[in-house]
Amino acid sequence: MKITYIHHSSFSVELDNTILLFDYFKGNLPSFDKNKKLYVFSSHSHHDHFDESIFNIEKTHPNVEYILSNDIKTTKSQNTKFIGADERLLVDNLEIRTLESSDLGVAFIVKVDDKIIYHAGDLNWWHWESENTPEENKFAENKFKSAIDKIKGENIDVAFLPLDSRQGNQYYLGFDYFMRNTNTKVAFPMHFFRAYSLSKIFKDSEYASTYKDKIIDINKDGQTFEL
User: How do residues 70-84 score in pLDDT, each as one tens digit?
Assistant: First the structure.
């Protein structure tokens, strides 16, 4: 499995016969193998997770399928499928499940080639100390936990999870809850707004002590990992 961090929350996952691209909106795309089918996922319509430029990929890649959250109201491709929260979709040999985001859209759980890949989108424990009331923060916590509890104890091969420095001391909450409630082998931080040092800070913290070796350090856009 070859994983490339593109930018922000965007990753590509290249397997033997298949390529998955998640939440692309800008950045340099890898040179994808044109003999492999490419599946492009967009978790929701926020500008830092979706851009209509994804439809240009069809011009250079011969076989592309788009799987978009149904809050995205546009497509420029006939090869598009829309999916809502808590739904299932079978596309070729991909088994796709979704969870409802605690913000907008969905999180994706994709089974392909006997691997389970999770991309959170904006499903996270969003705690905003200075912006939200205690009641609003509790509502956000409950919404996040209710989604993750639906996959409690499940095996995940690779997970892409928000680790957002804007949350201050609460930056770790969603990542930590996910890791403690799923059996995840490898976890990539994302949505960190180029605060690359945050993953090391997290790995060195008491919160991640039991799973720190599962967290991948990202140092730059375009970085590639072989798993």
Answer: 999 999 999 999 999
Q: How confident is the model at residue 129 (pLDDT cuts 50, 70, 90)?
A: confident
The string of DSSP codes covering the chain is: -EEEEEETTEEEEE-SSEEEEES-SSSPPP---TTSEEEEEE---STTT--GGGGGGGGT-SSEEEEEETT----S-SSEEEE-TT-EEEETTEEEEEEE-SSSSEEEEEEETTEEEEE-TT-S----TTTS-HHHHHHHHHHHHHHHGGGTT-EEEEEEEE--GGGGGGTTHHHHHHHHHSEEEEEEEE--TT-THHHHHHHTSSTTTTTGGGBPP--STT-EEE-
- Of 117, 118, 58, 112, give the one whose Cα is nearest residue 90: 112
Q: Judge contact between 61 and 140, C-beta under 8 A.
A: no
Q: CA 109, CA 215: separation in Å to the nearest integer?
A: 19
Average pLDDT over residues 46-58: 97
Rg of the chain on CA atoms, in Å = 17
At 7, list the tokens. 């930018």
CB 12 within 8 A of CB 30: yes
* Structure confidence at residue 46 as a pLDDT band (50, 70, 90): very high
